[in-house]
Amino acid sequence: MVNHTNDRFLESDVFPFYAAPFELPAGRYVAPHSHEFVEFVYIVEGGGMHTYKGIEHRLHTGDAFIIEPGMEHSYRVGEHEQLLVYNVLFHPSLIFHELESLKEDSSFFDFYYVVPFMRQSVKDQPSLWLSPVEQSVFKSLLDEIVREFTVKDHGYRSMIRSKLVECFVFLSRCNRKNNESVRLASPSEKQAMEQIARFIERHLEKQLKLAEVSRLCGMSVSTFKAKFKANTGRTFLEYRNEMRIMAAKRLLVQTELKMIAIAQEVGFEDVSLFNRTFRHLTGMSPSQYRKDQL
């Protein structure tokens, strides 16, 4: 197994850092390897598989995870897939003091030290996935880091340190929101439904089942359905579809993603169903909506 060293990948001992977008084409396999530095990975778009500690995990757009020094891992992209990622490599000494202070924040501690963070649930393994809106914000931060590292204008090292800390604080906040959205300790019925509604909004890409959500509330499916509609005015499916279409509208305006990619981003596995649902709720097709907004 190859162990990648700092001197091969990082800029220098004085500034142990590297950042760039990286594309894995269809059929690409990255053999098991480890490295002396921290590798932060953000999935910009596409899909594939990541093997960590001998367990293979599905990668999705919006996944963010960290590979700690010395940990073996590998990537595999299917024959009909491709994967675009942002790789941020650094030695912890680069922002040691900032990391030490951030470790006092429990949500940051959980994010930084538990690896990896996949959307697909794995036993005893927390996950971090960014919503479409969060993805747009976070990619802008990473774009700024890559631009600073590429151009190397005056003060770029200070800017990168600052932006890197900003990235981790942002992810810490996202992680905390995720945790709070499912913390249903003895809430009132109305509070429980409101929290479940927020949980649905933050996990639009997941194929949430009524049985799963009902269990989260400690209710039977029939009881949950009745209480959810009584409190929101909509059925579980109606509410989820409305939130998905709202997220799709943002992506149609703010990105140049293709329709099939947007459909998958907001939880529709079938693009034709996405088109029908969008038209049903808005009175127009997704392409017409995008055209009207430009």
Describe this structure in words.
- The chain has 294 residues and is an alpha+beta fold.
- Helices cover 49% and strands 18% of the residues.
- It is built from twelve helices and nine strands.
- It has a five-stranded mixed β-sheet with strand order 1-3-8-5-6.
- Helix 6 packs across helix 8 and helix 9 crosses helix 12 (286-293).
- The longest helix has 26 residues, at 156-181.
- The N and C termini lie far apart (50 Å).
What top-tier CATH class of the largest domain fits best? Mainly Beta
Total number of strands:
9
Strand content: 15-25%
Mean of all residue-level pLDDT scores: 83
Return the structural class: alpha+beta
Termini distance? 50 Å
Describe the sheet with the most strands.
Answer: 5 strands, mixed
- Spatial order of strands in the largest sheet: 1-3-8-5-6
| CATH homolog superfamily of the largest domain | Regulatory protein AraC
- Assembly of the depicted chains: single chain
Q: How many H/I helical runs?
A: 12
Order of helices and strands: EHEEEEEEEEHHHHHHHHHHH
Please tell me the CATH architecture of the largest domain by its name: Sandwich
Q: Give the C-alpha Rg.
A: 21 Å
Low-confidence segments, given as residue ranges, are: 109-126, 182-186
Q: Level of helix content?
A: 40-55%
Q: What does the overall shape look like?
A: globular
- Tally of discrete structural domains: 2
Secondary-structure blueprint of this entry?
Blueprint: E1 2-4, H1 6-9, E2 17-24, E3 29-35, E4 38-46, E5 48-52, E6 55-59, E7 64-67, E8 73-76, E9 83-90, H2 96-102, H3 106-113, H4 132-151, H5 156-181, H6 189-202, H7 210-217, H8 221-232, H9 236-254, H10 259-265, H11 271-282, H12 286-293
Parallel strand pairs: 1-3
Antiparallel strand pairs: 2-9, 3-8, 4-7, 4-9, 5-6, 5-8
